[in-house]
TrEMBL record:
InterPro entries: MMPL_dom, Mycobact_MmpL, SSD. Gene3D superfamilies: Multidrug efflux transporter AcrB transmembrane domain. It comes from the Bacteria. It comes from Microbispora triticiradicis. This is MMPL family transporter. It is a multi-pass membrane protein. The keyword Transmembrane applies.
Length: 699
C-alpha cells in the first residue's frame, strides 16, 4: 500500500500528534465549560409566537397597558352539588386576605357559575416578578385559598401565573434527568456492542464532553445573538449530539478495528480508518446540519431555535468524533478492545456473519424482497388514517398539574372560552365601535371592556366554542375580519385561542416550505457524495417511504395505545426532518461502502459485502439512536414523547428493513445502473480494501 496516501493523517495521530490533539481538546473544552455560562431566557411573550402573527402584535401592545404588566392567578373554587353558604363565606374571606398579595392591593369580587357549583377569584400578580418570586407568590395564594376551606370543597389555582409556575416545576431538573438517562442508555448499548469493560468509556466520554461544549456554545449565542431556546430545545439538542455523535463513533471504531487486522502500527491503522470513514461521516453530518439550518426559515420561534441549536450540536459532535476521538482511541492501543482485541492478519468475521447471510438471501431474490418490503411499509403507512393535528394548551403535558386541572374545572362551569378569553386591542378613540362590532360576531358570548390608555384600549372576548376546536378557529377569523373592518381602529385580536390559530397556520406554512428543502438538501449531498443520480433518488425515496410508515405507525400507537387526542403542531415537521436527515445516514454508510467494494467486485457482490461488513455497526448505531430518541419521553411534553416514538420506531424500521433489505434489493435489481451516470471503478485506487487485504494476509 502507498504510505503517502495517509502520511498526513498518520502524523496527526502519531506518537506526538495524539498527545497534542488530546491536550488541545482538554484546553478548548475546559475554556468552553468554564466561560460558557448559562442560557439566557427570553421573557418577551411575543418572542415565543410566530413571527408576523397578529397574536404577537397583541402581546407587544399589551405591554403598553396596565393589565399587560400583570399575571393573574385565578383561584377556582368548586364543590359537587353546589357551593354551600359556608363555602361562599370562606371565598369572601379569601378575597379580603389575598389583597395583601395582589398587585395594587385590590382583588375583584368572586364570580359564580350559573349552577353555583364553581366560583372564580382573580388575584392580579406582577408579571415582571422573577420566577422564584412568582413561585413564592402562587404558593402563598394556594395556601390562603386552602386555609379554612370547608371539607368537600376544592380550590385550584390556574391562570397565567399558575401555568407558568406549575410548568416550570414540571421541568425542574428534567434536563439533568434526560442527560443522565441518555448517557446511561448509550453506556449500556456501547458495553453490549463492544463487550469490553472499558472501550465504551472512550466514545461516551468524548461525546459527553461534546454535548456539554455544544450546550455552552448555545448558551453564549442566547446572550449575544438573540437565539431563543427553552428546556425542550436543549433536550432535543442533547439527544442529537449523543445520538449522531455515537453513530459517528461506532462507524469510526468499526473501521479502526478493520485496519488493526491489516496494520501492526495502530497510528497508521487509525489514519486509514479516518481516511475511509471521514467522507461518510462528513456527508452524514452535513446532511443533518444543513437540514437543521433550513429551520431558520420557519415562522415558529421554537422550531427556529431547535434548528440552530441542533446544527451547533451536530457540528460539535462531528468535530469531536473525527478530531478528538481518534487521538483518544490511539492513546490506549489495542488493549482497549480487550478481550476481543483484533490481531494483524486476522480475517474479518463479519464476512461470514449473519449480515453476510442476509445479504446473500436478498441478492438471490431481490424482486420478492422489494415487494415484501414495500408492502410492509405501505401497511404501516395506513395507520395515518384519521390523523388529527393540534393540541390545546391543557393537552400538551402528560402530567395534569393543578393549573391544568383548574382550567378544566373552569371550562366545565362557564362558557367554554371563559378560561382563555381573546384579547382585543384597538385605538382608544374607536374602542366602543370595535367592541360593538365584536359583540355582533356569531360565536361571541360577551365582550368585556378592559383598561385603556390615551392611545390604546383593551377588551376581553369570550367565545362559545372550546379553545383549539375548528369552531373556535372560525370564530377567531370572523372576529378579526369584523374588527379589522372598523375604520381607523387598527384593531388586533390575540389571546390563547388566537395564538392556537396563528401557530397552526405557521406550522402548515413551515411544513410546505421546509419539507421540500430538506429533501433537496439530502438529494444534493447524496449527489455530491455518490456522483450518481439513480442512487441519490433511490435512497431519498426509501427514506420518504420509511417516514410515511413510521408516521402512520406512530399515529396508530398514539391513538390506540397512548390515548393522545392529536399530534402536536410541530411533530410532523420535526419528525420528518430527524427521520429523513438521520435515516439517510445509514444509507450513506452502506452506499459509500458498496461503492468502494463495487470497484473490485461488481455491484451485486459489492452491496452484499458492504452489508456484511457494515450491518453489525449500522444495526448497533440504529438501535442506539432509536433508544436515545425514546429517552425524550423522560421530559413531560407530549410533543417530545411523540417525536421520540416516531423517530425511534422509524430509525429501527430504517435499520432493520429499509437499509438491510429494501436498499440492497433495489441495488441488486438495478445493477450497475444504480451508479449512473458514475462508475464506481473509475478512479478507484488499486489498493485492496481492508477485507481483501486481510484475506491476502492469510497463510
Amino acid at each position: 500500500m502507498r504510505r503517502a496516501d495517509t502520511s498526513g493523517w498518520a502524523a496527526l495521530w502519531g506518537p506526538r500528534g495524539k498527545w497534542l490533539a488530546v491536550v488541545l481538546a482538554i484546553v478548548v473544552s475546559g475554556l468552553a465549560l468554564a466561560l460558557g455560562g448559562a442560557s439566557k431566557v427570553n421573557t418577551d411573550p411575543a418572542a415565543a409566537l410566530p413571527r408576523g402573527a397578529e397574536s404577537a402584535t397583541v402581546a407587544r401592545l399589551q405591554q403598553r397597558l396596565p393589565s399587560g404588566q400583570l399575571a393573574p392567578a385565578l383561584v377556582v373554587y368548586s364543590r359537587d352539588g353546589g357551593l354551600s353558604p359556608q363555602d361562599r363565606a370562606s371565598i369572601d374571606a379569601d378575597a379580603r386576605r389575598l389583597t395583601a398579595l395582589a398587585a395594587g392591593g385590590r382583588v375583584p369580587p368572586p364570580v359564580y357559575s350559573d349552577k353555583g357549583d364553581v366560583a372564580l377569584l382573580s388575584v392580579p400578580l406582577r408579571g415582571a416578578l422573577p420566577l422564584a418570586d412568582l413561585t413564592d407568590a402562587v404558593r402563598k395564594v394556594r395556601e390562603e385559598a386552602a386555609a379554612g376551606l370547608p371539607a368537600g370543597a376544592r380550590a385550584q389555582v390556574t391562570g397565567p401565573a399558575g401555568f407558568k409556575v406549575d410548568l416550570a416545576a414540571v421541568f425542574d431538573g428534567a434536563n439533568l434527568t434526560l442527560l443522565a438517562v441518555t448517557a446511561s442508555v448509550v453506556a449500556l448499548l456501547l458495553l453490549i456492542t463492544y463487550r469490553s469493560p472499558w472501550l465504551w468509556l472512550v466514545p461516551l466520554g468524548v461525546i459527553g464532553v461534546a454535548d456539554q461544549v455544544a450546550a455552552k456554545i448555545v448558551a453564549v449565542l442566547t446572550r449575544t445573538a438573540g437565539l431563543t431556546v427553552d428546556d425542550s430545545t436543549l433536550g432535543i439538542t442533547s439527544v442529537l449530539v449523543f445520538g449522531a455523535g455515537t453513530n459517528y463513533a461506532l462507524l469510526l471504531i468499526a473501521r479502526y478495528r478493520e485496519q488493526l487486522r491489516v496494520h501492526d502500527d495502530r497510528h497508521l491503522a487509525m489514519a486509514r480508518a479516518v481516511r475511509s470513514a471521514a467522507p461518510a461521516v462528513l456527508a452524514s453530518s452535513a446532511t443533518v446540519t444543513l437540514a437543521l439550518v433550513t429551520l431558520v426559515l420557519a415562522d415558529s420561534p421554537a422550531v427556529r431555535g431547535i434548528g440552530l441549536a441542533g446544527a451547533i450540536g451536530i457540528v460539535t459532535a462531528v468535530c469531536y468524533a473525527l478530531l478528538v476521538l481518534p487521538a483518544a482511541l490511539v492513546l490506549f492501543g489495542r488493549g482497549l478492545f480487550w478481550p476481543f482485541a483484533p490481531k494483524t492478519g486476522q480475517p474479518d468475521p463479519a464476512r461470514d456473519g449473519v449480515w453476510a447471510r442476509v445479504g446473500g438471501a436478498v441478492s438471490r431474490r431481490p424482486a420478492l424482497m422489494t415487494t415484501v418490503s414495500v408492502a410492509v411499509l405501505a401497511v404501516l403507512g395506513l395507520g395515518v388514517a384519521g390523523l388529527k393535528v393540534g393540541l390545546s394548551q391543557t393537552e400538551q403535558f402528560r402530567e395534569k398539574v393543578e393549573a391544568i386541572a383548574g382550567q378544566e374545572t373552569l371550562g366545565r362551569a362557564f362558557p367554554a372560552g371563559s378560561a382563555q378569553p381573546l384579547v382585543l386591542i384597538s385605538r382608544a378613540s374607536a374602542a366602543e365601535e370595535v367592541e360593538a362590532a365584536a359583540s355582533r360576531v356569531p360565536g361571541v358570548v360577551r365582550v368585556t371592556p378592559g383598561d385603556r390608555t390615551a392611545e390604546y384600549a383593551r377588551a376581553d372576548v369570550v367565545l362559545r366554542a372550546e379553545p383549539g376546536t375548528e369552531a373556535a378557529f372560525s370564530a377567531v377569523r370572523a372576529l378579526r375580519a369584523a374588527v379589522h373592518a372598523v375604520p381607523g381602529a387598527q384593531a388586533v385580536v390575540g389571546g390563547q385561542p388566537a395564538v392556537d390559530l396563528d401557530e397552526r397556520d405557521a406550522a402548515t406554512r413551515d411544513q410546505k416550505l421546509i419539507m421540500p428543502l430538506v429533501l433537496g438538501v439530502v438529494l444534493l449531498v447524496l449527489l455530491a457524495l455518490l456522483r450518481s443520480v439513480v442512487a441519490a433518488v433511490t435512497l431519498v425515496l426509501t427514506v420518504i417511504a420509511s417516514f410515511g410508515a413510521s408516521f402512520g405507525a406512530g399515529w396508530f400507537a398514539f391513538r390506540h395505545l397512548f390515548g393522545f387526542p392529536a399530534l402536536d403542531l410541530d411533530v410532523p415537521l420535526l419528525s420528518f426532518l430527524f427521520l429523513v436527515a438521520l435515516g439517510i445516514d445509514y444509507n450513506i454508510f452502506l452506499a459509500t461502502r458498496a461503492r468502494e467494494e463495487a470497484a473490485e467486485q461488481g455491484t451485486r457482490e459489492g452491496v452484499v459485502t458492504a452489508l456484511a461488513v457494515t450491518g453489525g455497526v449500522i444495526t448497533s448505531a440504529g438501535v442506539l439512536l432509536a433508544a436515545v430518541f425514546s429517552v425524550l419521553g423522560v421530559l413531560p411534553l407530549i410533543t417530545l414523547t411523540q417525536i421520540g416514538v416516531i423517530v425511534g420506531f422509524g430509525v429501527l424500521l430504517d435499520t432493520v428493513l429499509v437499509r438491510s433489505v429494501l436498499v440492497p434489493a433495489l441495488v441488486t435489481l438495478l445493477g450497475d445502473r444504480f451508479w449512473w451516470p458514475g462508475d464506481p471503478a473509475a478512479g478507484a485506487t488499486p489498493t485492496r480494501t481492508p477485507v481483501r487485504q486481510a484475506e491476502a494476509a492469510r497463510p
